[in-house]
Structures are given as C-alpha cells and as structure tokens.
Design brief:
The chain is α/β, with parallel strands linked by helices and 227 residues long. The protein contains 9 helices and 4 strands, in the order H-H-H-E-H-E-H-E-H-H-H-H-E. Residues 190-227 are annotated as: Disordered.
C-alpha cells in the first residue's frame, strides 16, 4: 500500500499535464549549455563510443582537458581523432597533472553470476567496489553521474525534474535508509582492510607494466589525453 501511494504521489507531481506545464516552464536550457570547464582535467572511462564518447566530446567542446580511457587501442585512437576534428581541441595534459573529475562510465551488467578472484560479485565489484577502493586515498569526493538521451519523445514533468541543477530530486526515490548506508560502508571498509593486508604481489593489477611496452614507447592500458 505504501509503495502504491508513493507511486501515485510521484506520478501526480511528474507525469500529469499540470506537472509537465509547471516544470517545463521553469526549465532554462542555457543553465546547462552555458557551463564551461577551462583548466579542468577530466578522466572518462569507456570514452571511445556511446555515452562515454558523447561525454568526452561535450567536455572538450566546453574547454575541458580530457583523458580518454579505452580498452581497444584502435577504436580509442579513432575516437580521439574524431573529437579533435570536431572540436579543434588537441592540447595535451602534462604527465602528473591533477585529476579534477573522474567519470566512470565504463561498467558491466553480467547476465549470470560471476565472481572476481577475491570472491566479489562481478557487477558489484566493477561498478562500485573498484572505483571506491582506488580513489578515496586520493581525496575523491562523492560523485553522482546522471546520463540521459539528448532526445526524448513525449517528455513528462519528470524529464525536466531530472535536469534540475540542484540535487533536490535525488532524495525522493534514491535515498537509502540509514541502516543500508551503514551496512554498505561497513562492507566497503572491510574490503579496503582485506586488500591492505594482502601481500602486494598477490593483489590484482600489481603487474609490472614494462612487460607490455611496445617499440614505439606506448604501454597497454595507456590514456590518450587531449584538450
């Protein structure tokens, strides 16, 4: 009964004619299109196609410096070439510069249960554990990333609600209970402790990259930065 009431409440405030008229009248496209990112360094994973490519392209248009992380070297280089041709942006990031924004677009959705060598479910490990374990000690802040299609047929009031600059709509349907939050952080902290106690030579991804060097000096897993 409670779920039905919440569903009806959200529908009335987002998907009725009055909700559409009210929220669409307040929407100002310029609030999104006028934002630029000069001297800001971005890293985008899965940047050679789809949402990742569109993200890298838009950030480059807005003056951002972008590192494109791609699994396939040839497709990554082609995507980089296309973005440079379309934006005229080709200034490189110097090695060692800070990362201001990390956009973890690449992810997985397994069709059957698969676990990592550490025993974690693959989708959970790739989309949540990996990013968490690799960034807190570097000063990473909380990141909320919302990806949407640029064209939507029969848009509703919710279409405009999701494009608000503030995060006021997030708590309506996505806020976890205090217990769920505490359980998640307890589990993640345990994962960090387990990894720190594991000998380095047994940790995943602790390999020596020098074995993967090519004659041209490139290394497998390299990034192609551009501005």
């Amino acid at each position: 009964m409670l779920a039905f009431t919440k569903w009806m409440w959200r529908g009335a405030f987002n998907y009725t004619r009055s909700a559409y008229e009210k929220k669409s009248s307040r929407f100002v496209p310029e609030h999104l299109t006028s934002i630029n990112y000069p001297d800001t360094n971005f890293v985008v994973t899965g940047a050679n196609s789809g949402i990742g490519y569109a993200t890298a392209l838009d950030l480059a248009r807005r003056g951002g410096r972008v590192h494109m992380i791609c699994r396939n070297k040839e497709r990554g280089e082609q995507a980089l070439f296309n973005i440079i041709q379309e934006t005229g942006s080709e200034n490189m990031i110097d090695e060692g510069e800070r990362i201001d924004v990390l956009i973890l677009n690449a992810g997985v959705m397994m069709s059957h249960r698969t676990t990592t060598d550490e025993g974690h479910e693959m989708t959970f490990a790739t989309n949540l554990l990996g990013p968490y374990l690799r960034t807190p000690e570097q000063g990473a802040d909380t990141i909320v990333w919302l990806a949407v299609s640029p064209t939507v047929e029969n848009e509703s009031g919710g279409f405009y609600e999701d494009r608000e600059l503030t995060a006021k709509h997030l708590t309506k349907d996505t806020e976890s209970t205090r217990e769920e939050i505490d359980n998640l952080w307890t589990y993640l902290e345990k994962c960090v402790q387990d990894e720190e106690q594991q000998p380095k030579e047994q940790q995943p991804n602790s390999r020596d990259n020098s074995d993967n060097e090519h004659p041209d000096g490139l290394v497998e897993g390299e990034t192609h930065p551009m501005r």
